[in-house]
Protein 1
Amino acid sequence: MSGKPVDPMYDGENRPERSGPTPDSDVFCGYIGEVVRDLDPTTEADPVSVLATLLTASGVMMGRNPHVQIGDDRHPALIWSMIIGKTNSGRKGASKGTAMRIITAADPEFAGAPFQISGLSSGEGLIEDVKDDDEDPHKDKRRLVMEMEFSSTMARSAREGNSLPAVLRLAWDSENLSVLTKKKLTATNAHIGLVAHIPPREFRLRLSDREMAGGTYNRFMPFYSHRNILLPLPTGARSDLVLSHGQELRKRIDKARTYSLIGMSAAAEKLWREEYYEELSSDGEDGPLAEFTARGAAYCRRLAMVYALLDNSPVIEEHHLRAGYCLVNYSHASASYVLGTSTGNPDLDKLAAAVRNAGAAGLRKTDVTKLFSHFNRSQRADLIKDLMEFPGFEQEEVKTAGRPATVLIFTDPGEET
């Protein structure tokens, strides 16, 4: 879950130790990976957050035409990214600023109103923005929603009767948007992507079991964001570099818009059938963590498509599929890191809750024995070992009047500093 990152872009001076999960270097694939690598030395933003923002924005810019077919469902190039990072050191805002410089250079019109919006409040409000217009039947309904304070959006969504969660689910599914109110609103062929920013603790506090079970938040891919480099006086990327990448991105986006059904090469199909599909489609355990990662298979296909299109290819190659798979894995690891107590194992959840409730004093092993008296010593040891795999949980030796005692403690990995 943590340790030294495997990608060379993280090496060098002024690189802080990375907390939380680490992305595989394969996520920085092809042309879009090259862009992120070029930007990396100039910003404190986490490169995986910059990557996620660029993938989301690019997918929206491509429009509805390019898609992958999964059974009877048509999946467009929509990637919904949730950047989760600490307020002071997550550098969420920096990832937006870095990515949007490239998007603005590629298409200044798209980078402003009406294509870039924020302030989601209700389903009716979102539909109103992209509703059908008889006077303009060719209205461009691409929208990039940038929610920098997503905790407020989550709070509004939780209010009784708010239609936003249901409309968001339709938008991700690329369905027609509508609500049955006194003023009937309908939006056909909308193409809406989201980038949401939120601190870990705010996310956990705001998370509604009702909405998780309803499938709203599993439309998002969570990405844990970490300051990647210490730059006392950051200057950002050179203007000529930004312009060059922007112009090239525009060419690739324009070409992507001409494609329709995106297929897979024989090698990619083999990799999907034999290795990835079963793993990403497994029902696994119940619980919030499983709910939050329920769309791994679909997202892998969507991501692979966007990687391929940005490489000027209407066919998903093996390396595109691998990049999508690795980014899905990073998203799953991020969800596990942020929702560390939601393991899907009731016994493990029970132990984690007891450790949390014990506070700074910690939970002694004698307390674990009482809590799980129906377990034998080996089973309790295995349970403790499993808990130690989750972020924030540690074992410590404390002095007593007799022999030192082992206590289990929790330090919130998402605590604001």
Note: Residues 364 and 401 are 15 Å apart (CA to CA).
Protein 2
Amino acid sequence: MSMPTPSAPHVPASRILLVEDEPDLAQVLLDYLQRDGFNAEIEGNGARALAQIQAAPPDLLLLDLMLPGLDGLSILREVRKFSHLPVIMVTARVEEIDRLIGLEFGADDYICKPYSPREVVARVKSVLRRSQSAPLPSRPSGLSAPPIEIDAALWQVRIHGQRLELTPKEFKLLQALAASPGRVFSRTQLLDLIYEDNLDISERAVDSHMKNLRRKLAPLWPEGELIRSVYGVGFAVEF
């Protein structure tokens, strides 16, 4: 008598929260996401969306910039205070400054309207792959070089024993630089390290993340600048 073949364990679908106040557009995108197997839902009000994220964070947030109740950047700013969940900003405002502001607040990707729903689904899959994959390579069991400690498994950084709150991109920047003290990384190299699919992402995004990272490091690193700029070349960590 043959034994029944054990069934594969059920893997729950990734939950996507689509925060969009244009009902027709939101419904089309919802249909595409559900067709690809995602557990997707819509919220059209920014304040309600933030409350929902705080109560039950999704696996990924598709976040429109212009929303009633609370705008997208305000939501992103609040979310980054308690979560590193992947966020893709969606907006009709295409100016580069808007894109950089979104990146500075910790967005993982940026899509401009009008867009192809298929492209959005592809971006969602890409960002989820990055967020679920192992962090950038570092020394075994996390990088530890007192007085700076970087725990790759927990995505935590401590400077002189004090925890440093960073966005995912800032964490990856510091991790990459600190893994090779003294090595100078170009902006292009850093861009490739923090964005696996760096479509339409300019090198200025690295400068924006670096500016924020240095600002956060400054109060905890009285010895001077931890990250050194090499004019015309790039950046290096020295400790």
Note: The longest helix spans residues 117-132.
Protein 3
Amino acid sequence: MNAPTPAAISAMPGLVQHITTSLDVGGAQSMLVKLVEATAAKRNGVRPAVLSLMPPGSFTHRLRQSGCPTYTLGMARGYPGPLGILRLLRITGMLQPDLLQGWMYHGNVAASMAQLAVKRRVPLLWNVRHSLADPKVEKWSSRAVLSLSARLSRNVDGIIYNSRTAAKEHAAFGFDGSRAIHIPNGFDLVRYRPDVHAGDRLRSLFGIEDRRPIVAMVARNHPMKDHAMLARTVGKLRMSGRDCRLLLVGPGMDTPGAALMQAIGESLPSESVTFAGERADVADWLPGVDMVALSSAWGEAFPNILGEAMACGVPCVATDVGDSGWVMGDGGRCVPPRDVQAMAAALSGLVDLGDEGRRAMGAAGRSRAVAHFDINDIAVRYRRLYASAVRHATQGSGSVSASALASEAGAHSL
């Protein structure tokens, strides 16, 4: 039998039940919402439903606006109790999905459990959004879920990774490497785009009156992001005569904490740093920053902020965690994690390029985003992957390799 055409695959309908750890602000959650929105916009017969293990988060409203049914188990962090598992099985039994898609470690394990409530054989896919260079830096509870996931991974039809590096690291930990499929993150290139007026908008929104170059980091307040390293780096820039303003935006950054404030106090005058918490208007002002920095020490797979900055034509400097270097290409510079000297040298180079040089690097990043990370193209890969998996399950094709599913979907096996 000839393989179906991509058009035929993408047209096949089905109910896809996404099971995610949470719907709070985060890279995985953002990609899930963008995927659902893109699916709804195309009206191609793929019907999503989303179940969150934790209580409704910031992204719930967007999902409901797109017409996507959403459910929650209301559980606290950690493993679901017996009542949570019963509710998971009851909701899944009611939906009777054509495909189960887990998101993040706890959501993946829950998706494996949810299979028990489906009356027929349906495909099970996981989605891993975290890199794993050193498992010892993870919390003990996370390591326990990782160990369980490694054992369960042999019974999954495919594991989607947004990072090739993360796929290799998880295989080394014990995840079934033959299940790996690579689909990168995607971005709305209409909403995230260069804007010559964004600089004035940015300064008005954040009350910035001077015209010093702005180094921005958009990330939640978490130790893995290593904000203190970036503060020390910008302090070194200032000492070298390159006086920049540091803009730190993200969930929890309006209450940065004593350790970060101490690092900033030792490195920078308070008037050189602007803090802001979670914001929904990042696309409106991000094109106005001079450069984006990401100082993460571990954990990143495909950082969304790099793709968003590139789409906006903003050059980036990021630590070499996950696929950051591959994501940026010529649109940025990559440095070792925790290396203040290397980060300072890279940011100094961008400052010295001047406005014209930074625009040229930003344009290269924008071109790369258009070529590889358009959300519409990424959504097509997901739809084809889902439809291919459903088709094989419906036809009773038996065990189908992840590489065959990826090939039919236009994705990449690893």
Note: The CA atoms of residues 75 and 81 lie 8 Å apart.
